[in-house]
Amino acid sequence: MSFVDHADVFIGSTGDAHTFVVLNRPIRGADRLLTGAGFTARTINDRNIYLLAPTTSEEANERAGIAMYGLLSHTHDLVDLSWTTRRSPHTPGPEPDLCFTLTDTALTATAATNEARSLLEQHGFTPTVGSSYQAPGP
Which of 13, 32, 70, 133 is disulfide-compatible with 82, CB 3.0–4.6 A? Predict the structure, then answer.
């Protein structure tokens, strides 16, 4: 089981500044909440993933906040590892140790440190090429 599967709601970011939400259980009204906040629903590996295109950190934070506020009325089991909702253009942060990539067919990750590689492997990601990892299947 991947760490994106543990919480009811997992929020993350891709290396190209997309914010994404994975729902690990059905939540009433979630599709409406997320799409209403500007997220686009996509199916990857037979799972619904909601994707917010790159935007300013303030706008990403506001949109994600609107959606999460609504989801919190149904669950408090939420993990937010998104860097896109926190970054500031005035004070860029360090490069992340872990980057996610979403394509039409897969969720992959790239680890920059031994700790990030260990975390991915502990949660079922499989090493592929170099520092890249393939997410476990559904």
Answer: 13
